[in-house]
Amino acid sequence: MAHGRPVMRVDSLWIYPIKGCRGQALDAVDVTTEGFDGDRQFVLTDSGVPQSQKSLPALKDLAATWQAGQLTLSFKGGDPFQVPADSHRQKEPMPLIGRTVGVIDLGEPVAQWLSEAFGKRLRLVKAAAGEAISIPLPVFARLEGTVQSKTVDVAPLLLANQASLDDLNQRLEAPVPMDRFRANIVVSGLAAYAEDALDTLRLGEVSFDAVTACERCAVTTFDQTPDGASDVASKEPLRTLSRYRRRENGYAGGVMFGTYIAPLKVGRIHVGDYAG
After folding, report:
1. Which of 145, 152, 248, 254 is the most buried (most CB within 10 A)?
2. Helix (DSSP H) and strand (DSSP E) numbers for the chain
3. Whole-model pTM?
């Protein structure tokens, strides 16, 4: 407690090197104005169409590790595969969430490995250099003109509050783990849903703008456990959240959990850092 107020603490840090893949836990991470180094830089495509867990639930069984500029893959605990570098490849367009983004295809060796692992023809592409973003919705005004990877949905990072999950789990018949929400930063020390009221925050060396609440999709209803019980979505926790965490006129259904944040400067944050 500081001056009688709860102090926010970083409990865990996560990146998702391939969009939709299993998360990689980190003890510390470098932060740029585009987000975390290594986060959502890569996308699987099927005939040029980007894949997510909604279209390819087995993505949860793909472990992607990003370390010192090297991407290493493993599927269902199998042998690791190091993805070759992307030097001298041409940028090509890819449709993503109502816009076209520039990506670089990473070639045949990784495409063959992925196709054999998933049993369907897939390719791996990497986001080209970040670009200034413009989302024509007032709720995203704080992101206007910021530079970020074009493979993210709307904002560089997602913050989730452990107390909010604890409150949700008290309402569920079967509790769910935090990995359902695919956050980059999980914090403790706040009251449940106090993240809704954040304006700016500082963690470690880095200051962030709180952009808006994250409106959740069906991915939250998939068991993220490797080789989990089912690749078929349930109705929870989305059904329960919709009963008490829905806002009117939302941009994606209005069911909220977690907060989008955008870095204001570069720096480094660690598990165990407190809000400054």
Report:
1. 152
2. 3, 20
3. 0.91
